Every structure is written in structure tokens, then in C-alpha cells.
TrEMBL record, chains A, B:
It comes from the Bacteria. Its cofactor is Mg(2+). Keywords: Hydrolase. It comes from Soehngenia longivitae. The lineage of its organism: Bacteria, Bacillati, Bacillota, Tissierellia, Tissierellales. The keyword Hydrolase applies. GO terms for cellular component: cytosol. PROSITE patterns: NUDIX (PS51462). One of its GO terms (molecular function) is hydrolase activity. This is NUDIX hydrolase.
């Protein structure tokens, strides 16, 4: 079994709006020490939202961290004490305007376990009713729709390069092709 | 089209061993300002390594950021000026001992574009020759093998919860089932 690292010291570097950074000193089996740089994140939800034509709702959004516009499934951070399913309904409405008749838990996964505790809860939303977006200050999001076949091709062509979006599209592709 | 944010100020918070943290002040269209907390990461590679029985090589490793042991495909950070394909060969050998006859680029994706520039280059490695692991100080990794059917089931059961690993397994599943 892999060695479980014991924390000897934990130094808080930064407490921010969407993330915190700490550096832990851990003890290794040979009594040596090592540093672990850890980004604390509240967790997030992502939503595979499917309309009556079996198209997925995809958002187009600028991402400052990579200075690039990405195509992604709707997603957003968990608020304090918020249940993931409530967060999924809220983010879907805010980012796309859609309200789902039916929303169900699919799976959860870590995005970057080498340096962050960010966990994404993935949901499947169906029975969509369109409405107005409710964007936060500083959010500018275009809402688009693509068929599953288009999306699988866009992954292959490198037009979709966001990991949670690739996981979500593959999940739905395997679900309806099984 | 989404609004491209202009950087008005950039404050360096932390320069570390595997990541840096900076906080950018960006201008929004209405001349308001907002902060963007950004984790700079050198990028990484991940490897779908397949043996002659069509099993995937999976590593079991403790991850301090989530205080949990995870099953993942072999992966690791890019070193300075290192080509991704060289990094993939190096990491595969170091973490699992295997040397691949054939290693090819599959795709690249961002793990957490909301707050980090981490990009993963995914490779497919075949024609594996076993050898000795070359672990770094502080690395403790078990090497295991699973069939594709087992892995697809483990994703469903929540036994595999790492996003790059889910992307890699789905890629290979779709490749051989098309």
C-alpha cells in the first residue's frame, strides 16, 4: 500500500475569494521531510444538460487563467453549505437560463489531485425549459447547442479541451450508446 | 463573443516548487474591476499504457492534497524545456518501470481552467517492456493492471475519481470499440 504522509507543519500562504494556498511539511518513511503545495478549493458542480433534440447545452467563456475562450459544459463553484444538486440547478439557471424538470447525480471526480482538492460533482439535467441568464458581475457567457456526434468530433479535433467537459460528453455518449 | 479580460495589475503571491500563485486585476466591459486568482503550473503528461493482454497500467498513489489514495494512469509534471513526449517516456519509466516501443500523442486538455493554467498532454504507449521503477524521493507508487471492462466498471462505481484517468480510459474504450 502507498505510504500515507503525516503532516508535521502547515503554513497558510494565501486566503482568497475562490481558493486558498497552504504549504504542508510532510514526513516520509525514511524520516525525511518534504513540502506539499496545496490549493484549497470549495468544490464545484458541472452539468450535462440535454434538450429534447438530444443536443447538449455548451457555454463559450473566456478563462483568464489560460487567456483563452473555451467551450465547456455549464459549471460553477459550490457556495458555503450548499448541496451539490442545488448548486447544479442554480448554476444551470444562472449560466444558461435553463430550468431542468429532472436533474440527477452522475459521478464525482478530482480535477488536479496532485496539487488541489477541487472535486467536481457531475449531474445530468433533462426536460429543459428556456429562460433568462442570471450572470454574476464579470461573467460573460454565450450559450450554444451541439449534437453528441459534433461534440465527439470536437474533442478529437482539439476544439474542446476542458477535462470536465470531456468527461461529461463521454459519459453521455456511453450512456446512450450502450 | 465572450469578453476578453484586460490585465490592469498582476500581483505575485507565491513562487513555489510545483506551482506559483498570482492575483490579476482585470478590467470588465463596464469599466469595473475584478480579481482573478491564478495558479501557474508547468503542465503535465499522462500516459495510457497498454500491455499485450490489452490491460492498462494503473498506479495507486497517496495524494496529500485530498488525503486519499487514488488509482490513476501514470502522469507527471513537465520539466523545464522538456518536450511532452520525452516527459511521457520518462514518467512511464520512473513511475512504472515500463519502456514503450511505441508512444503517440492523443490529445491535450486543461484540468481546472477556472483557476489554473495546468494543461495535460495525453499519450498512448504500447509494446511495453517491464523494468525497475525509478521513483523520486517521497514517491511511493504501486503498479497494477486492469482490463478495460474492469476500469469502465470502476469509473461507474466511483473507485476511479481522477479526471485525467477517466478521460484516458474513455479515450481508449472508444478507440477500440469504434
Amino acid at each position: 500500500m502507498p505510504y500515507i504522509e503525516k503532516t508535521m507543519k502547515s503554513e497558510r500562504i494565501y486566503d482568497g475569494k475562490i481558493l486558498n494556498l497552504r504549504v504542508d511539511t510532510v514526513e516520509l518513511p525514511d524520516k525525511k521531510y518534504s513540502k506539499r503545495e496545496i490549493v484549497e478549493h470549495p468544490g464545484a458542480v458541472a452539468i450535462i444538460a440535454v434538450n429534447e433534440k438530444n443536443e447538449l447545452i455548451i457555454i463559450r467563456q473566456y478563462r483568464k487563467a489560460i487567456d483563452r475562450v473555451l467551450l465547456e459544459i455549464p459549471a460553477g463553484k459550490l457556495e458555503l453549505n450548499e448541496e451539490p444538486i442545488e448548486s447544479a440547478k442554480r448554476e444551470l439557471k444562472e449560466e444558461t437560463g435553463y430550468i431542468a424538470d429532472k436533474i440527477e447525480y452522475v459521478m464525482e471526480f478530482y480535477t488536479s489531485p496532485g496539487f488541489s482538492n477541487e472535486k467536481i460533482y457531475l449531474f445530468l439535467a433533462q426536460g429543459l425549459t428556456p429562460g433568462e441568464q442570471e450572470l454574476e458581475i464579470g461573467e460573460y457567457i454565450d450559450v450554444e447547442k451541439y449534437s453528441l456526434e459534433e461534440l465527439m468530433k470536437m474533442i478529437k479535433l482539439g476544439e474542446i479541451v476542458d477535462s470536465k467537459t470531456i468527461v461529461g460528453i463521454n459519459y453521455y455518449y456511453n450512456l446512450i450508446n450502450k
